[in-house]
Amino acid sequence: MTPIPGPTAEEQVAFLGKIERLLAEGQFVATYKYALLLAIADLAVKHGRDDGGELDLPIRAIAAEFIELYWRQAAPYGNAVADGGYNILQQNTGRQAAIVSIVENLRQAHGTLIRARQSAAWDAAVTEAARLVRDMPLWRLQRLRNEVLDFLYAASPVAGNVRLKPGVAANLRRFHAIIVRLAQTEWMHFIQSLPANSQLLGPTSDLDQFLFGADRSALLRMAAPLADVQKGQCLYCQRRVDSGDIDHFVPWSRYPRDLAHNLVLAHKQCNRHKSDLLAAETHLDRWLARNQIHGDAIGEAARTANVIVDLPGTVSVAGWAYAHCANLHAATWLQGDEVEPLSGRWQSLLIGYR
User: Fold this and answer.
1) Which residues in the chain belong to E strands, given as ranges?
2) What's the whole-model pTM score?
3) pLDDT digits (tens, 9 = 90+) for 237-286
4) 4 lies in some domain
5) Do both 207 and 74 map to the same domain?
6) What spatial distance separates the first Cα and last Cα of the chain, rounded to whole Å?
């Protein structure tokens, strides 16, 4: 099969320009468009390729991503109001966005996202969210004030799928971090602009963390299970950890989702030195081996801690991150202040793991 060439440099620049236009010139009456853009970007990372091919994304998969994106946002926010209760942030210029009601019902019935995903109510909630995606943001995302910028996907779904146009998945993967930051920033500004949220927000400084940050309490609940499977050692330096950090192996800045098998126990110093860099191939080898041997135990602990369990998806994210790093000829972190380039061994490690 002849490889399909990926987007050219000119096409990549044009793609980013169109993303910027969507966010700047689109008409937003709810936060659905931001969620749709984030959902298709995340799914492109998990299921796409870096060539110029098309990619079919099931609308139900997008709907499931919607529920996960709004899970945090359907929680009560801010100080108690006059009646002693807590309010949920408004996501719409008119009535509250319907997706919030779907998520709120799941939260009230099941408490955590993990239990909701395992419940009999999950399929019905995804079906309802899929209908919302089809009826609302899917055909509106690419509409500007005076123009239709038809560059992401075909206007009409095909057999329940959204078909990303040639090269779109590759561009979403290449510019994932930029697109996520842009969409999240605009989402947050939209929420701040709604008069219904003014009393709740006030002079707040934690809105970004509330809407899009890591679930710190869930990460803390993973500390003991990770220490157990790593035999009390830092994944990176292999020395004993008495008081360490929970680190995202593929850094949060590159893929801002809490995935159970992406979490590792690390010394505070190792975590600080690694920062937003990818770990060197020797650490990748160790991480993959840990997940292969202890994957079931990590998954079981994560379900109790309310952390998403998706080992194949996590490995796909790692493959995407290392391929992107290799394309940029970027350095990876080895130890302390030492970095090193990728040798190419990462490919055989990841292919061998699958």
Assistant:
1) 55-58, 161-164, 245-248, 263-266, 331-335, 338-341
2) 0.86
3) 999 998 889 999 999 988 988 999 999 999 999 999 999 999 999 999 99
4) no
5) yes
6) 22
